[in-house]
Amino acid sequence: MAVLLVTGSPSVADTVVPLCAAVGVEVEVCPEPALSLSHWTGADLVLVGDDVADLVVALAPPRRQGVHVVGLSPGDEVFRAAVALGAASVLDLPGASDWLVDMLADVGERSSPGRVVGVVGGAGGAGSTTLACALAQWHAGRASTLLVDCDALGPGLDRLLGMEDLPGVRWEALAETSGRLGARALREGVPGREHLGVLTWSGLRRRLDVPTARRILPTAVGGHDLVVLDLPRQGGPVLAELADRCDDLLVVTPATVPGLAATARLVADLGRDGRAGLVLRPGGLSDADAERVTGLPLVATVGDQRGLAASVDRGLGPLAGRGPLARAARDLLAAA
Q1: Which end of the chain is less packed: N or C, by CB atoms within 10 Å?
Q2: What is the mean pLDDT of the chain?
Q3: Which CATH architecture describes the domain 3-105?
Q4: 8 Å CB contact between 135 and 333
């Protein structure tokens, strides 16, 4: 069962049932609270009407996630029942209908969050954005993937992948909205092809702020198998916030004295634990030198790829055919 609605109120049922039908989820209306116990733990989402909330509390159902109390102008006493049930919210209908629709749209989504891989350049021009695109392209051939452009001053990841003309929501629209955004709504709303979506910036650029990042990233992770973050080197609090949320952080740098020196400063500022690894680009210094200077373990080396610029100019993205990027993306995600 997708949704269990426990209510004896025709008004509540007549409000909730059409919303479930609109998003295509199955709903079972149970007017007798005692009969709801057999379905209580098996439903993806449980909605308890304010008319029977106290009766449900008296039955002492097991605590679980995904319980909400719904009603038409519910009174203050309903909140005590909601707390006793461990409900996540009390929804005042029909005013909260949009919120409920977003919640219903996520019914049946993944029960465990996807993986978050962050990519940041240890030095300017290291190729971190190219690697982020390659990781996303490689994984999108296997499962749902979202590539997130966290650098408002970058080239625009949709442009690098030939998606700049595709319709869809960009960061500017998300920054101007508030409230809950469903995982499915985000996945289907961003520009994308097949299993690859891109959350990036339009021409009206602004810097990403921490509250927006905190609100959107959990939704992105809830709707995708993999989320790749292209992180800004000069991100300040946003960089620290997003880096802390990564399961794996890849720091890309050329094997040169200036590159490794800049990378060492970045790593010191981030203060990462064992989840960070070094991706080395061509240069004159050795792998051992790179690990010693940065304090990070080497997880991959990526050589120059022939025809990279032409591939991007043709709208194919950096991962066209075989080459160093494809091998690095495969190995890095296999090890993640």
Answers
A1: N
A2: 90
A3: 3-Layer(aba) Sandwich (3.40)
A4: yes
